[in-house]
Amino acid sequence: MGMGSSAEFAPIVQTPHWISWLARSGNFYKHDHLIWASATAQGIDPALWKAVIMVESSGRERARSRVGAIGLAQLMPQTARSFGLTSKNHYDPKANLGAGAKHFSAMLERFGGDVYLALAAYNAGPSVVASQGKIPEYGETQRFVSSVLTLYQWIQDDPLSLPDNRKILTA
Predict the structure, then answer these.
(1) Could you give the CA distance from residue 58 to residue 117 in angstroms, rounded to a whole number?
(2) Catalytic residue among 8, 56, 61, 109
(3) Which residue stretches of the chain have pLDDT < 50?
(4) In what helix (H) or strand (E) does residue 136 lie, and over which residues does it extend?
(5) DSSP secondary structure string, the chain?
């Protein structure tokens, strides 16, 4: 008996180092229940929303970017205010994720469900994406979109990344 054709074997794809690091961090699963709840409330794929959050803040609720984006969802203060956050609850995980999910849902709606453009708009701003009609040629935005989609695929492929599966597999 032969080994069969190479088409019978799935290629081994090594997990990118940054995903391995992120998945081993104490923050990777910490807010899953809130991420899933906020995504579901807005009709967003929870695995995609988790990927956005993990790329944005590495799951750190007190994250603050060099340009002033705040919390798990890394919302700019003006955007945060437009979705009901105040300076008192910017870092509250439930409030921040809820506001961020509303914002991302609005980007998906604005760009007709195009995940690539919605992600670009979440990162670079909707007016830039709308005016160019494509992912802007900003290195940061292109890396953001690529990283979110890479992590999203990994989350979908890794059964322990999904909260319901962790309960089943560890029971």
Answers:
(1) 22
(2) 56
(3) 1-7, 12, 165-171
(4) none
(5) -----GGGSPPP-PPPHHHHHHHHSTTTTTTHHHHHHHHHHHT--HHHHHHHHHHHHTT-TT-B-TT--BTTTTB-HHHHHHTT--TTTTT-HHHHHHHHHHHHHHHHHHTTT-HHHHHHHHHH-HHHHHHHTS--S-HHHHHHHHHHHHHHHHHHH-GGGSHHHHHHHH-
At residue 160, the pLDDT reads: 65
Average pLDDT of the chain? 87
Residue 50 identity (one-letter amino acid): K
Tell me, what's the pLDDT at 8? 54
Is 109 a residue of the active site? no
